């Protein structure tokens, strides 16, 4: 049976955070734009420094506090409650630093509680720290640095004058050097296995709204230099249907070198994102890693959109958008009881040494994002 019309295309239009675009662009944000000229190259030590797989031990988690009614409208208070819930949950397992604007830091402290460190020295436009924050790298010998991905508001779709500076400011606060990749992108657009292999959608990165005139081969080189990798597994993705142009971290994730997971749609689902997920699974199932090991690709069954709590057509119900922190997996549940329980069981099987926390983040999901989207790990050196 097909989904009802409200869910037939689960993330249609610019609906993954698409309503946020109404905020427009500030002059400063627009000035950052999409040119690839003049950006600093990633560190020459990229062969030594590498972005580790996400289950590596963390020093802390970075997050950002949303406070813009021009972006979130009357959903802001609910989204803030979800952000605070995520922060408090992660803080049970590792330190959390929340970046908040000075005018909203007090509210962030009130909702997040004493276990979360709220700072007001790093201004933000929005809560998507995965995309605006730095990507940290380690060298295996006690070294830590960071790479900025030149965030431009997902192709100048949203105000980002402050968020464009977050990566550098977070790195400075953490006391680590930062260089900037020779591409425009976001952390949610690239998955790494920590051993030389990346995966991404062409729709997000081989896109003139981020990287005009840059070829896929040039992007591969830039991505590998930034992440300390040597191979990119590409998926076609879905272009122009959500604000991110189909970030990979909502569908496919690396578990370890040679191991990946894909959230699969129901057999009856046939919208653009269902077809995209099946294509991602097919590509990964036939892929090899940078070290030529065949990829072991597992399925994570997605929910039935008839049965989830939200009836909003923009809702992102992604179990795959989980976050790994020290000792735990932070995931979501959506109200399809059978699918929620099955997803939790799958994650427990994949991470038997971690606590599986499932949270109700429906307000954030209506904005088109998830738990991975609003967190950024700082790995231990």
From TrEMBL:
Signal peptide limits: 1-33
Q: Which GO terms describe its molecular function?
A: agmatine deiminase activity; protein-arginine deiminase activity
Tell me the InterPro entries matching this sequence: Peptidyl-Arg-deiminase_porph (IPR007466), TAT_signal (IPR006311)
Work out whether the entry's keyword set contains Transmembrane.
no
BP GO annotations: putrescine biosynthetic process
Recorded hits in PROSITE patterns, A to Z, give: TAT
**Assigned keywords, A-Z:** Hydrolase, Signal
- Tell me which SUPFAM superfamilies the record gives: Pentein
UniProt cross-references to Gene3D superfamilies, sorted A to Z: L-arginine/glycine Amidinotransferase, Chain A
Listed Pfam families: PAD_porph (PF04371)
EC number(s) on file = 3.5.3.12
- Protein's recorded name: Agmatine deiminase
Lineage of the native species? Bacteria, Bacillati, Actinomycetota, Actinomycetes, Kitasatosporales
């Amino acid at each position: 049976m097909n989904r009802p019309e409200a869910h037939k295309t689960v993330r249609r239009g610019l609906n993954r955070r698409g309503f946020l675009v109404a905020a427009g662009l500030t002059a400063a944000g627009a000035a950052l734009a999409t040119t690839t000229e003049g950006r600093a190259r990633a560190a020459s030590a990229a062969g030594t420094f590498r972005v580790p797989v996400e289950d590596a031990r963390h020093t802390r988690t970075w997050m950002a506090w949303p406070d813009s009614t021009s972006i979130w409208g009357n959903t802001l208070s609910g989204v803030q409650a979800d952000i605070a819930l995520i922060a408090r949950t992660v803080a049970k397992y590792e330190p959390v630093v929340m970046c908040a604007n000075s005018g909203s830091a007090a509210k962030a402290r009130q909702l997040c509680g004493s276990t979360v460190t709220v700072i007001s020295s790093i201004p933000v436009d929005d809560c998507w720290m995965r995309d605006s924050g730095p990507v940290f790298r380690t060298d295996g010998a006690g070294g830590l640095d960071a790479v900025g991905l030149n965030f431009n508001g997902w192709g100048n779709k949203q105000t980002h004058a402050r968020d464009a500076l977050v990566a550098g400011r977070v790195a400075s606060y953490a006391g680590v050097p930062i260089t900037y990749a020779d591409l425009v992108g976001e952390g949610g657009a690239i998955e790494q296995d920590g051993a030389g292999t990346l995966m991404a959608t062409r729709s997000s990165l081989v896109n003139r709204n981020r990287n005009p005139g840059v070829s896929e081969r040039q992007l591969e080189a830039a991505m590998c230099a930034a992440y300390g990798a040597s191979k990119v597994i590409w998926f076609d993705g879905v272009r122009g249907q959500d604000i991110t142009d189909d970030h990979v971290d909502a569908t496919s994730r690396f578990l370890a070198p040679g191991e990946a997971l894909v959230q699969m749609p129901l057999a009856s689902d046939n919208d653009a994102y269902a077809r995209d997920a099946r294509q991602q699974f097919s590509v990964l199932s036939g892929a090899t890693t940078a070290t030529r090991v065949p990829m072991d690709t597992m399925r994570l069954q997605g929910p039935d959109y008839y049965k989830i709590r939200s009836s909003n057509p923009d809702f992102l119900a992604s179990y795959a958008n989980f976050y790994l922190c020290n000792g735990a997996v932070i995931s979501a549940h959506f109200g399809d009881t059978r699918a929620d329980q099955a997803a939790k069981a799958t994650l427990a099987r994949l991470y038997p040494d971690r606590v599986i926390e499932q949270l109700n983040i429906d307000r954030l999901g209506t904005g088109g994002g998830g738990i991975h989207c609003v967190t950024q790990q700082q790995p231990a050196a």
